[in-house]
């Protein structure tokens, strides 16, 4: 029995559909965590992967889902990050599930969080963020502990790459060499000073 080789047309057609499938499906990685837990650092570090990162602002879960970005850092009123009313929690959990959002949540020691930035974070906010992460842990794809990120950044990166299926372009330990500093500004609009991981403030 003779078999016919697939035509060039079939190869091109398959390639076309595979390309469009990849184009229409974008991985959605949403970074959460209580304020002063390292969410900004983690968002910057995701630039070490081959993904598009929303670097110029925090972004709400809804806006992130509707955007073309593959990685975004939560706003203050996001789940796993703040004190929320039950209906808001339910709404955000539904968005995560229905849109296949991969939540990466970062946790830092309570005393360090509360001491950071002159007590910016309240104790109740910290406990609520951690409690949400515990009760709704099935919605979180990866949990990053700040202490481990600081002490073993490349090891944490390898774990994230494996869990999320990401290609590594730079090592986390090379931060901030791979960061576009022009996208990192302070509240006043001036360029933010970027320090190596774990380096103390001057």
CATH top level class name: Alpha Beta
The ordered H/E elements are HEHHEHEHHEHH
Q: Just name the CATH architecture.
A: 3-Layer(aba) Sandwich
Into which percent range does the helicity of residues fall?
25-40%
Structure summarized in a few sentences:
The protein is of the alpha/beta class.
Write the layout of secondary structure elements.
Elements: H1 8-24, E1 28-32, H2 39-45, H3 61-66, E2 71-73, H4 86-98, E3 101-107, H5 110-115, H6 123-135, E4 140-145, H7 146-151, H8 153-164
Parallel strand pairs: 1-2, 1-3, 3-4
Describe the structure.
Helix content is 40%, strand content 10%. By secondary structure, the protein is of the alpha/beta class. It has one domain (28-172): Rossmann fold. Strands 2-1-3-4 form a four-stranded parallel sheet, sandwiched between helices.
Features:
alpha/beta; Rossmann fold; 202 residues
């Amino acid at each position: 029995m003779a078999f016919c080789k697939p035509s060039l047309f079939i190869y091109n057609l398959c390639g076309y559909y595979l390309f469009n499938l990849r184009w229409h499906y974008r991985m959605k990685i949403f970074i959460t965590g209580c304020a002063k837990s390292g969410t900004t650092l983690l968002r910057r570090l995701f630039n070490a992967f081959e993904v598009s990162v929303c670097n110029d602002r925090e972004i709400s879960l809804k806006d992130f889902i509707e955007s073309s970005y593959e990685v975004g850092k939560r706003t203050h009123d996001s789940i796993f990050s703040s004190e929320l009313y039950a209906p808001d929690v339910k709404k955000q959990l539904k968005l995560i599930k229905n849109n296949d959002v991969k939540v990466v949540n970062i946790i830092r020691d309570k005393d360090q969080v509360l001491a950071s930035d002159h007590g910016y974070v309240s104790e109740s906010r910290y406990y609520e963020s951690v409690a949400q992460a515990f009760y709704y842990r099935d919605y979180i794809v990866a949990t990053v502990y700040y202490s481990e990120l600081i002490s073993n950044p490349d090891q944490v990166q390898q774990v994230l790459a494996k869990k999320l299926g990401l290609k590594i372009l730079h090592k986390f330990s090379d931060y901030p060499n791979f960061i576009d500093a022009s996208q990192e500004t302070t509240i006043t609009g001036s360029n933010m000073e970027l320090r190596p991981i774990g380096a103390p403030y001057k």
